[in-house]
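# step 3/5: fold
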Amino acid sequence: IADKSGIIFRNDLEDEIINCDIASNGNYVIITRNAGGTQLVTVYSANNKAVFGWECTDDYLVDAALSKNGKSVAVSSLNVSNGDPFSRIYYFNVDSLQVENKIEYPNETVYRIKFIDNKNVSVITDISYMTADLSKGESKVLSYEYDKIAGFSFGSNSSVAILKTGFGSLNEKKLMIVNKKCENVFENSIESDILDFGTDGKNAYILIAGKVLVYSISSGERGDDIEVDSSATKVMISGSDIFALSSDCVYKYAIK
């Protein structure tokens, strides 16, 4: 575990780590699987003490997320029957082993989940983007329609950037920005080869070879491009700065 000062905790686990997440208060959750196939979800306090544990043997656990206050945990799972996927999201309070709620998604594969606040989560699946109210067990759905998901990136202000491949095309790429209300607030087709992308809730940022394309989410208009090092393959946005990452260097640029 690291913060801006460096590594603050390190521990070796005998079991395979499937996924993990950390909350603002320092609580963190880890999904592990041992050689016998047993899967365990464990939540640790900021003092590295186990405060919650749940074992799953029925489904394959995919992802886990902690609420902003670290008091709730969501776990996504996947099962396949007769070739059809079946996903579930389990919702727990860390002070109880009882399942508070469960949402089922037949014929969908949940890739990632991330808390928007203390009870709502973003849900990325193979065919749709959703926001789920775990306390009520209800979901809002935004379908990709006939497009296929090619990637996604969680941004600030609970916004999500989703890259799609156009229906019937291997080359057409569309970038969609979704807000925390599960509304599509921006969509644009990109002709260049996309290396990476992201959003800060205000703009969409698309990394292509040697530059970052900047689009206003509210107007859809393209602003000034930001020239970056040609070796950059990843882009991250933090405040008024863009960080372009290559295999051996991090470059910092100011957003115009």
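# step 4/5: annotate
The chain has a mean pLDDT of 94.
# step 5/5: archive (pending)
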